[in-house]
Write a structure and sequence with these properties.
The chain is of the alpha+beta class. The chain is built from 7 helices and 7 strands.
Length: 229
């Protein structure tokens, strides 16, 4: 592993970079990190049973995607919001006929808000479709697979061609808080000094035949839980 101001970098086989990600995850956990940002990182980091061009690709595209709008967060489709807008507009006309101008304006504004939310949801959905296609088909051919949140910034890329043990990857991870980065660095050093063998975590009951561009996935070991000896 190389350590620099930009983070913790490791070059090696798929198993090597999986272990690198596990060590950093373990160091963050041992440093007391327990947050949604940590869970996001733990979900994204490469796993032994995954493939770079498929699993990590999909997770990166999802992580880079446009965030949900208010309508999507509320579980409403654009057509549902448009129906609500129509109802509010009808209510606005009724209020006018009743002489309730204040109520009419209120319903009219509600109608406009629903229309805006419907348009926002539809636009975000369209953008995600374009983003996903462009990212998966184009950007991953030109740039590393990356992850970024308030806790961790990371990128991984394949740097050699071939299959099996001949394939090499580079995985660089930066902890964004300087004090936490120092704590992680100390723990990574301790692991190198104290750990004789690192047990890579493997997915239970996986049916994946290959991992990481042609590297055979390790057979399941129910006792393998990223523990150390």
């Amino acid at each position: 592993m190389e350590e620099s101001i930009s983070g913790f970098k490791h070059r090696g086989s798929w198993g090597d970079i999986v272990e690198h990600g596990e060590r950093i995850t373990r160091a963050l956990r041992d440093a007391g990190v327990d947050s949604e940002a940590f869970e996001e990182w733990d979900d994204w980091r490469p796993k032994s049973h995954e493939r770079l061009s498929q699993d990590v690709n999909e997770k990166t595209a999802a992580q880079a995607s446009v965030a949900e709008g208010e309508g999507e967060k509320a579980g409403k489709k654009p057509e549902e919001d448009l129906q609500s807008a129509g109802r509010k507009l009808s209510e606005s006309y009724e209020k006018v006929e009743e002489g309730d101008n204040e109520g009419a304006v209120e319903r009219w504004q509600d109608s406009i808000d629903y229309v805006k939310r419907a348009a926002d949801s539809a636009s975000r959905k369209a953008l995600r479709t374009v983003e996903n296609t462009v990212y998966r088909k184009v950007m991953t051919q030109l740039a590393p697979y990356y992850f970024d949140n308030e806790l961790v910034s990371a990128n991984v890329q394949r740097v050699t061609r071939g299959t099996g043990d001949d394939v090499e990857f580079v995985f660089e991870v930066n902890v964004n808080d300087d004090d936490l980065k120092e704590a992680v660095s100390e723990r990574l050093t301790a692991y190198e000094d104290e750990v004789d063998r690192w047990h890579i975590d493997t997915e239970k009951d996986t049916t994946t035949a290959e991992a990481a561009e042609g590297v055979e996935a390790p057979r399941n070991d129910p006792e393998s839980k990223s523990t150390t000896n």
